[in-house]
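User: structure tokens for this one?
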Amino acid sequence: MFKGLRPIVYGGREVWPLVEGGKGVAATNHASSGAWAAAGGIGTVSAVNADSYDPEGRIIPQVYRALTRRDRHEELINYAIDGAVEQVRRAYDIASGHGAININVLWEMGGAQRVLHGVLERTRGLVSGVTCGAGMPYKLSEIAASYNVSYLPIVSSARAFRALWKRAYSKAADWLAAVVYEDPWKAGGHNGLSNAEDPLIPEDPYPRVKALRETMREGGIPDSTPIVMAGNVWFLREWNDWIDNPELGTIAFQFGTRPLLTRESPIPEAWKQRLMTLDEGDILLHRFSPTGFYSSAVRNPFLRNLEARSERQIAFSTQAAGDHQYQLDVGVKGKSFWVTRNDLLRAREWFGLGFTTALKTPDNTLVFVTDAEARVIRKDQADCMGCLSACGFSSWMDTESNSTGRLADPRSFCIQKTLQDIAHGGDVDQNLMFAGHAAYRFRQDPFYSNGFVPSVGQLVDRILTGN
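Assistant:
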């Protein structure tokens, strides 16, 4: 065991301070999280549109049959609750009384509060805690405490935690089990970069976590309440200065990317194989997500296409004004848009290359796509089932009007569609593939040499050595 690493008390028993990151939409399921808990750590079932099964054990495809978005949204919530409950029950059985089982939800997912209530109501006594990020989950503490379940908010700054603590969490302090600090530059999936932070200049996590601990102390939270370091965690020996450090208090570590490449990991084989080929820099921190958050994913052809689409973009006016003195004559089929001379020439060039349809964005710009791309974009927008509380791609919003009041943005994509597809065997080149920025280390780490894929138990044993 790595020097200085000691068990913590969580969920009424001693567990290793090793947390499995909960990866949404079927990338973390009962097999991986149950095995992580069985190895003595804290396994995390994703409660974000998790899989459920028919009587023969086959995954039930999440097909939406309702005609309206509102009714499809109800279908989505039912799928989410049923799937998460099934995953928790199976994970708990696999754990066999060892470790602990958490669930992970995204606060900005559609119907998050209803899903959380539905899952916790039907899994009483099975779930130790709820991790939650992607937004400011003020009601997390209230909901978790009402089921006698701990909560572990995911934040990226001391400032965010202070706001949560003062407004809500201080009223349910006894159920705060840990605070997850997720590095907004290095973690996989959606990231909590603020407008004041430069996405191109990563900051050292140590002073940020130190500031978080100081904020927790101001609220009277004891140092025994762990801060969970998440994002870019690979070898524990690289974090030696964090363990038993009085400035930081109790530290635990979250592993999101490494558990993807295990025998129990539910992701398809093609995804696992791709992880072994990545080089440093192959993960892109981008802002194409319909959530509006930054997120990190493999820079595969899917993301490259989104980058190229946004580059084929010009500003317009609805009447001649300023530099916009030239009427656009390609891609708009008779509609009147006025652009600069240079943009007119660029648009004609794109049209000649086959990007013959111009789609309006909410920012008074036009993006040029092929006719086939335009048909897919429009169909995906029409098929929206409200998987987010507010979606930039479809303009859905989980309110009475069900609208953001903004034009649907063709520069983004349907995140539910692509994540379901890649998790269930879809093309790894043509779908969003989330991963942390340390994923290139699969190729460098001798543990994975000759294509070795460990069991979760073998991975946890390896992590405990410091490697």
